[in-house]
Queue: 2 jobs
Job 1
Amino acid sequence: RKEVEQDPGPFNVPEGATVAFNCTYSNSASQSFFWYRQDCRKEPKLLMSVYSSGNEDGRFTAQLNRASQYISLLIRDSKLSDSATYLCVVNDAFSGGYNKLIFGAGTRLAVHP
Amino acid sequence: DVKVTQSSRYLVKRTGEKVFLECVQDMDHENMFWYRQDPGLGLRLIYFSYDVKMKEKGDIPEGYSVSREKKERFSLILESASTNQTSMYLCASSFAGGENTIYFGEGSWLTVV
């Protein structure tokens, strides 16, 4: 089983639609969680951190369910510029005091007019 | 503004050649990382460093080595390039501690023929 699993998509949605991505992780001791956005042939960039209480940033809402080891990202009122690959990222702590980010393979979103 | 610079964006090398990928960050970050990204596999950690002259193996270190002689510079070395090392290589950096955002360079596209 992969450590972080995502539906690869693609999700093809019209402008204005609401779309949700899910992600599951295998290590119940994982400490922190993030969504990154990656445009085609570009580097990943932090979209938002995911907090236990859930958090919102404009049209984007992230949720964490530790019991089910599940993270979600909701995008409301999709824009053409939201077209990208969304990476689910989990931060695992290791002995020795360092942390390790584990990336999902990404979910591709294509928003069309 | 945060800056992680990878000096070579596109390289074509022959099998057996020694390849150097250079990365420089200007944020005084303690941690630096090298990942490779392949379709369907997501980002996989090759090596990371949490201090000058310190290095730790990631998930896929075989065939690679690294060097960190100065805090701002982290080099990835392919001692003898092989075709299965054709990939996009991403350098990243962050402050120490798991909650800190990781910043990526623009990526180096390496083709080994």
Note: Chain A is about 0% helix and 55% strand.
Job 2
Amino acid sequence: SQTIHQWPATLVQPVGSPLSLECTVEGTSNPNLYWYRQAAGRGLQLLFYSVGIGQISSEVPQNLSASRPQDRQFILSSKKLLLSDSGFYLCAWSRDREDTQYFGPGTRLTVL
Amino acid sequence: SQQGEEDPQALSIQEGENATMNCSYKTSINNLQWYRQNSGRGLVHLILIRSNEREKHSGRLRVTLDTSKKSSSLLITASRAADTASYFCATGFNTDKLIFGTGTRLQVFP
């Protein structure tokens, strides 16, 4: 069966510090991968998605970047965090475009 | 702007009652999906309905789709306290991504 992991589960970082959130998927190959951010009590904002290694599509220009160094690994990064980067970050995968998405447990990021 | 908009934004009911949430979208779709999110957790897929389908059932869930009105509804029958969560619709149309709505927060009181 397929599983998706995200870490860390929670993170508190000072403004201006770097960020690296990791997402890995097990039990499938060549998944579509997605990073979302969710503000408290709000909907999901798609940040990045990837249909293959090294292929990254950015949805919202901002202080973040994403990389896919391996088939089942998706990394969200920032060189300098802003207060507005705080939120709940969710990684998801799907087998194909528009297919069911399977979400990880999320990372709660607080920037102080 | 977001493709899906759920209505109502929040819903409070008693156990045993039915809960109905609506989703409206703006453009053509290939499918529409409903997801559930418990507080502080990831989303869980509930049901997918294709654009050529009008109704779909899964346990206590019933989803309808009206492509002429660009809307869908999710009905949860005989609700339980454990159904308390946020519910999101998401649409897909010839892209590599889904567009999620803003969600309905459902509170079921025992």
Note: The interface with chain B takes residues 32, 34, 36, 41-44, 46, 49, 51, 57, 59, 88, 90, 92, 97-106, 108 of chain A (CB under 8 Å).
